[in-house]
Amino acid sequence: MRFRVIPTKYIVNGLRTSFAGDILTGPTMWALFWAVVFVIAGLWVGTRTFRRDA
Asked: Which residue range(s) make up the domain with 38?
């Protein structure tokens, strides 16, 4: 498998796999990883923005 730097693709593939019933597979774990990365990045950027404006 080639590594591609399109995290949303991993999230979509992981969701498709989980809807098919395969919960603990590679695509689902990649989706979880990238979703957590997005949440952490969003919280960091949002917190930084609010602290600058305050």
From this structure: 7-53
